[in-house]
Structure formats: C-alpha cells, structure tokens
Amino acid sequence: MRDRVPVVVQGSGRRARRAGFAGVLWAAAELTVTVGVVVLLLVVHQGWWTNRQAAASAQDQVHALEREWGAVEPVGVPEPGPAVSGAAPATDPAGVGAEDGAGSGESAGGGAAPSRSARPARPAAEPPARDRAYAVLRIPRLGLVVPVAQGTDKRTVLDKGYVGQYPGTAAPGAEGNFALAGHRNTHGEPFRYINRLRAGDELIVDVRGRRHVYVVGRILNETTERDTGVIAPVPRSLVKPDYGYREPGAYITLTTCTPEYSSKYRLVVWGTLRS
C-alpha cells in the first residue's frame, strides 16, 4: 500500500486571518459609532438643553423681580453717583467664555454724551448682592428680557442665563459706564443677536421699580479680550482708539464673544442714557 500524504489546505489560514481582520474592523466601527453618538448627545445637551434650562430659569427670575417691584417708574439722567461695587474694574472686558472670524469694527452712529442737567435718580438703598439678579435688561429690537446680576462669573451668573455686570462699573442710570457681559452661545445665550442692534435702538434697564432707557450709539464689531478700555467710565477702545467716547456721560456697554461659537474676540455695543 502506498503511504497517504496528508493534504494541507492552503486557504484555511488566509480565511482565518481575514475573519480576524474583519472582526477588528467591525469592533472599530462600533466604537466609532458609539463615540459619535456620545459626542452628539453632548452637543445636544450643551447647545439645546442648557439653553432651555438657563432661559427658563432666567425668565422665572425676571417674573420674580417684576412681582417684587410692582409698577415701574421712569427716571431721567442722574448726577454723578458711586459705582455699584467698590471692587476694581474687571481686567477682561468680555470674560464670557465661548459661550460661545474675524471682521472689522464699525461705528453704528453718533452716540454723543448725554446731558448732565436732568433730575437725579434716587440712590439705591444698598448695593445688590453679588451673583444675585437685581435688574432686568430689555432690548425691544431683539425681543430680549433678561435678568442682570453682579459679577461675570460663569458658574454663578452667566451660565444661569443671566447678564453679568462688571465689578466696579457704574450703577444703572448713574454717570459712568454700566457695563455688562453675556453668553452669545449656550446657557440661554442672551447676547446671541446683539450684532443686529443699530444706532437708535433702545436698551431698557429696570431696577427696583425704576426704568432707565439707553440708546445705542456705537458698535465695535471686534476687539481683543483684553481691551479694558471698552468698559472704562468713559468707554473707548485701547486697541482701536477711533471707537468709543471722549466726554463723561451715562453709558451702557454690552460685551460678548465673537464670532459665534468662539471666544477669540469680543463684540461691543455702546449706548447713552436718554435725557
């Protein structure tokens, strides 16, 4: 009898290797899909759910303040008064994070300093507590109604959907600069559309039942985050000195990040108190 020689199947090893490689690819694909779903959920949470929560909470705070105040009394331009807080002015003129391109700044209008001859407003009984809403900002053009709190801390003020007042800046309606920061994206994003404001638009601030009406005068579409001149008592950009004011007056400043979904630059809107 002939000896039988065992037959080696050459293709079986290759098929096993292919199967193993396919398994690795499948596992990698599953991992990629899982990571993608997690990232998508995080984006939805950050971009939609936090907005919903913060906006709802902010509106509840507005209603609480309105119930507390009752009727609102309009007032004129005051004589010089002390700042709301005794702290030094903030060093970051728009520390709102990315609450969030480049573009060039442009003037939106004249914005002459307001008269100082109008009747003075009654002084506040005491400074507002830090991190607590004490005023309401209304911007009719944008349909915006948002509470204002002291400070620009993200966790305790801005991420709650509030607008924050820079420490050391003037009280609402007082001579000096009432300077505010707000998120442009996420967490209620109250300042998302302030780039749509134009000269002559009203910025209304209600505090303790009294109303102060500012009028948009000038807009700086882009400056650095360290341009502290924009929140000075007489606001004027240190980076772009052609933008801002030169005379004392009662001013309001709105700051936020730009471009959208970025914190690279700051967008600034200035207004003056209506006499």
CATH superfamily: Sortase
The CATH class assignment is Mainly Beta
Structural class: alpha/beta
Count of domain modules: 1
How many helices? The count is 1
In the CATH hierarchy, the third-tier topology is known as Sortase, Chain: A
Beta-strand percentage? 15-25%
User: What's the architecture in CATH terms?
Assistant: Beta Barrel
Q: Average pLDDT across residues?
A: 79
Share of helical residues: 10-25%
Reading the helices and strands in chain order gives HEEEEEEEEE
Radius of gyration: 28 Å
Give the number of DSSP strands: 9
Distance between the termini: 121 Å
User: pLDDT under 50 segments (min length 5)?
Assistant: 77-125
Strands ordered across the widest β-sheet:
2-3-4-5-8-9-7-6
Largest sheet: 8 strands, mixed, barrel
For this entry, give a set of tags.
275 residues, alpha/beta, Sortase, Chain: A, eight-stranded mixed barrel, 1 helix
